[in-house]
Design a protein that fits this description.
With 182 residues, the protein is of the alpha+beta class. It has one domain: Aminopeptidase (3-Layer(aba) Sandwich), CATH 3.40.630.30. 32% of the residues lie in helices and 34% in strands. Strand 3 and strand 4 form a beta hairpin. The radius of gyration is 16 Å and the shape is globular.
Length: 182
């Protein structure tokens, strides 16, 4: 695959149909999505915000939003899932990774709006991350999550991620996916 084909594959916008029949658009996230991200995080349930940020994030700060939307599409990648709403686009999910300094591993995260969970969107967004990471030559993806997040445990297990307890914090688990095997 040439470098241009590689970039096209990573930057393309796709539409998919979820289990509930809703058509969703998945595209790379950029700085212009800061207001979508603000509304998305603000409208997550307390439980979903806790699972995503492993702590107390209420209303997201401007600094957090700028960090989450400062995507260089090289060391930091993110994909946003949107639907058409009466007011324009509405964010219903996001997936992202940040490459570690050595370049062979990346920490990732996926969060789905509460009303859109269990519709296949998390799997769709994870698959987009995996495709992007493989195209960039990343060998491993990993995620540190709450051990209480049963929905994530099921999705990760179904997709072949390994799960182990975090040796430094028994309330957390570490999911890993070896991209060279799968």
């Amino acid at each position: 695959m040439s470098n241009n084909e590689h970039q096209d594959a990573l930057s393309r916008t796709v539409t998919e149909k979820l289990r509930n029949g809703q058509v969703v658009t998945v595209r790379p996230l950029d700085r212009g999505d800061i207001e979508l991200e603000r509304e998305f995080i603000t409208n997550l349930s307390a439980e979903s915000r806790h699972f995503r940020f492993l702590g107390g994030v209420g209303k997201p700060s401007q600094q957090l939003l700028e960090r989450l939307t400062d995507i260089d599409h090289d060391q930091r990648e993110a994909f946003i899932a949107v639907i058409e709403d009466s007011g324009g686009e509405k964010e219903i999910g996001v997936s992202r990774y940040a490459v570690e300094s050595g370049g062979s591993a990346a920490e990732c995260a996926v969060v789905i709006a509460d009303d859109w969970q269990m519709q296949g969107l998390g799997t769709l967004l994870l698959n987009r991350l995996i495709e992007s990471a493989r195209a960039r030559g990343i060998d491993h993806l990993y995620s540190i999550d709450s051990a209480e997040n049963a929905k994530l445990r099921q999705v990760a297990g179904d997709m072949g991620w390994d799960c182990r307890s975090d040796p430094e914090d028994h309330t957390q688990v570490i999911y890993t996916l070896d991209l060279s095997e799968a």
